[in-house]
Amino acid sequence: MEQEEYTKEEIDWSYIEFVDNQDILDLIDKKPGGIIALLDEACMLPRSTHETFAQKLYQTFKNHKRFVKPKLSRSDFTICHYAGDVTYQTELFLDKNKDYVIAEHQALLGASGCSFVSGLFPLLSDDSSKSSKFSSIGSRFKQQLQSLLETLSSTEPHYIRCVKPNSLLKPAIFENQNVLQQLRCGGVMEAIRISCAGYPTRRTFLEFIDRFGILAPDVLTGSSDEITAVRRLLEKVDLQGYQVGKTKVFLRSGQMAELDARRNEVLGRSANLIQRKVRSFLAKKSFIALRRSAVQIQTVCRGELARRVYQGLRREAASLKIQTRYRMHNARKAYTELSASALTIQSSLRGMAARKEIHFRRQTRAAIIIQTRCRQFLARLDYSRTRKAAITTQCFWRGKVARKELRKLKLAARETGALQAAKNKLEKQVEELTWRLQLEKRMRADLEESKSQENAKLQAALQEVQQQYKETKDTLVKEREAAKKVAEIAPVIKEVPVIDTELMNKLRDENDKLKTLVSSLEKKIDDTEKKYDETNKISEERLKKAMDAESKIDDLNMAMLRLQEKISNMETDEKVQRQALLSTPVRSMSEHLSIPIVPKNLENGYHEAEEPKEPQSAPPALKDYGNGDPKLKKSSAEKQQVSQHFLVLQLLL
């Protein structure tokens, strides 16, 4: 901007090289494809994550010289700023960019009556609220930067750079390298270099002549234009390195301070001259006035002194006469006062002695009466206080006991409600168990019938197999006997050997068949016996389960009966206790604490009250409350038993 102004004013200057951050600004906030625009686009997409956002950045800016992808991370990226390289982590970019204040909420909080809350949430303009459907933190940040740049361009800003002197946060310690690095990163050194190379100070011709015309007033006397006047003024001041444009004067850094210093010197000299003239005039004027007033004061003082001397002489003569008259009057007055006071003192002393005597007699008589009345009053007061205290303690105790009873009744009512609910639950469970037991009984009967039928079938099969086995044994025995007979007859009959061998083969085949039949029958018998044992075991286990279920049902029925009896007993106890509480009236203390106080007259006029007797015993209701009601204790014990029964039932179920 400064160089554009140089060309506009047509002054001699050389181009100043400086580091331009426009490519970084385009990288961050360029509208179609900047980092903030891509971040808003990723926030608007439903399935985008920080990794997809990072991959999109890598693809978009892979050839950008200011954008670097780190080697050891998949979601980070590095931007080469003017101050140095900065690595950004994109894990929470999307969440933080979406974390914005809703426009309706901001309008609601901005309209708050509290100034603090309304200041935290200023109202947005209608254009900004309607401009975009999706408002993110990045877009708002860009809007704020744009408004800041507009205000900076419309004004003439002056910056203050804060430098941290050391990393220890202690006074009087300066780290040179740290301070220099901060100045370089903040752009202060570059700004100083650019300002020294260019013309940082510029003023219009009118402003320059108006401010520095006093340095050479003879230059402004002639009728010359502004440019020639400015040139002659600068030549008169002997300033080097300046430039005069069309409408402004351009000065190097430090030249404006030099001109201001010279102007301050001229103003200081003229101010000293003006002060000297004014002070001399004021001193002369004050001296003349002082001299005139001194003459007048002297004349007035001398006349006043003469008048005072004359008045003093007159007062001295008059005072002598007044003293003589006054002393005579005082002597006469003192004598008359002494005589009158002696008489009054004598009469008052005699009267005082007589009055004292009468007063002492009256006082002794009144003291006797007061003592009697006071002792009587104290005795009555003590009696009334003890009576009130007893009544209040009885009332407090009865109220306390009644409140305790009311709490216990409420707890009992709650517990009875819980017990009733548990009772209903247990009844449902008992019904379910009875239904299950009936089903098990039916199933058991069916199993027993099927088992008996199977047993009968198995027994019939066993009997048939045994009969077959016996028959086969008999046939085997017969065949063996026949074979023995044949073997005995075989050597005698030598003519038919072939017939004997065929019969033997047949017999052997039949024997083998019979053996296989016997073995198969034995296996079947063993299998049937095993099945029979297994069915017996299963039936015994089912019988045991059924017996256990019956015992559980009996226990549950007994527990239900006990619970019903206890609940009914508790209800009757509660009714009785409520009737007892309602029927016990609060008796008055006057019946129990009737303490007559009879004063005894003594010889000297005093009255002595009898000591109050001990109060009678409290009414029976209080005793019962103090000792504790056995019914309440029983009801609490029964409640504990009921809770134990509930636990047992739950364990059984």
Overview of this structure, please?
Helices cover 73% and strands 4% of the residues. With 653 residues, it is mainly alpha-helical. Among the domains are: 187 residues, Methane Monooxygenase Hydroxylase, Chain G, domain 1; 95 residues; 48 residues; 38 residues. The protein has a three-stranded antiparallel beta sheet with strand order 1-2-3. Strands 4-6-5 form a three-stranded antiparallel beta sheet. Strand 1 and strand 2 form a beta hairpin. Helix 12 packs across helix 13 and helix 14 crosses helix 17. It starts with a helix and ends with a helix. About 9% of the residues have low confidence.
Question: How would you concisely characterize the structure shown here?
Answer:
Residues 1-264 form the Myosin motor domain. With 653 residues, this protein is mostly helical.
Question: Key features?
Answer:
Methane Monooxygenase Hydroxylase, Chain G, domain 1, 653 residues, 3-stranded antiparallel β-sheet, 8 strands, mainly alpha, 73% helix, single chain, 4% strand
